[in-house]
Design a protein that fits this description.
Blueprint lengths: L2 H5 L3 H33 L16 H9 L2 H32 L5 H13 L2 H14 L6 H25 L3 H9 L4 H29 L3 H6 L7 H10 L6 H25 L17
Helix pairs in contact: 2-12, 3-12, 4-7, 4-9, 5-7, 7-9, 8-9, 9-12, 11-12
Length: 286
């Protein structure tokens, strides 16, 4: 018997399993690709009924969608909401992650669990009570209300991402900064923040992509003038009235292009392996 056969007693079964897995992946990707291709084709088709390809092509539907759905205003609202959520989440989340990583106190595990709940629970389950409170406080339909609603899952996400980055920073560096006279604020701004810059960038970009795609919470608290792009797309599809399918597909392509663009930017600067928490190893005492 050859060494290869001894090493792999079931080569045919392993090959069949790999072929099945890759076949399922290819089937999924082909279906997604064809779906996107159909939407993209319909968004530039003058008419497409009962034929393999449209009779003619035009970009007029993009102009129509931009005017009909007031996309210039929607994009401004989306940018304001997204960058406000990113800035506030980092401003609060980075110090909170530092506290959780460096301090031991009673109830720390319970507090960590509470931070993780918005990430583990579907947004709609706490979104409805949240929207009720927002309406009672007259925050629903306002930009601050939309920003606060989107921060509820974004802030725990920043803390979850930043905590392992803080744990990887040697505490001796902080001690050395204090020895040379740095107070807490100076130590944090001039020593820790530069070391945590990759984590801050990763958390910020991932929160940005997540907020652009956040539908449930934004839908529940947004008003006619505070809709983000994903909510406006939903109303374009399901609101009362007759709309050309090509115009809706054009808006869907605009939304997908913006989302993919931000995702590619995030992947350009963020290494997903950096987001895996590492167990701190302490040297054994001799």
């Amino acid at each position: 018997m050859s060494a290869a056969a001894q090493h792999d007693p079931h080569p045919l079964r392993d090959r069949a399993w790999r072929a099945l897995v890759w076949g399922l992946i290819a089937f999924f990707l082909v279906n997604v690709g064809l779906l996107i291709l159909a939407v993209a084709t319909n968004s530039v088709a003058t008419r497409w009924l009962g034929t393999w390809l449209p009779e003619a092509y035009t970009t007029a539907w993009y102009v129509s969608a931009w005017k009909e759905f007031q996309l210039s205003h929607v994009l401004v609202v989306t940018v304001v909401v997204v960058f406000s959520v990113v800035f506030l989440s980092l401003l609060i989340g980075v110090p909170a992650a530092y506290t959780l990583a460096r301090k031991d106190f009673r109830g720390k595990k319970l507090l960590t669990l509470l931070f993780l709940l918005p990430l583990m629970v579907p947004p709609i389950t706490y979104g409805i009570p949240l929207a009720t409170v927002m309406y009672q406080l007259h925050l629903a339909g306002t930009l601050p209300g939309v920003i606060i609603a989107n921060m509820i899952p974004a802030l725990p996400f920043v803390i979850l991402v930043m905590t392992p980055f803080v744990e990887q920073v040697d505490t001796n560096i902080e001690s050395a900064a204090r020895v040379f006279g740095a107070n807490t604020r100076q130590m944090f701004l001039y020593t820790l923040v530069p070391l945590l810059a990759p984590g801050v960038l990763a958390a910020g970009l991932l929160v940005l992509v997540r907020t652009v795609a956040m539908f449930e919470l934004t839908f529940l608290v947004a008003g006619p003038d505070t809709q983000t792009l994903v909510v406006a797309l939903y109303y374009a599809v399901f609101a009362a009235g007759v709309r050309a399918g090509q115009s809706v597909d054009a808006m869907a392509m605009i939304y997908m292009a913006i989302t993919v663009l931000w995702l590619l930017i995030a992947l350009r600067f963020v290494n997903p392996t950096q987001l895996v928490s590492r167990v701190k190893e302490h040297p054994a005492k001799g």
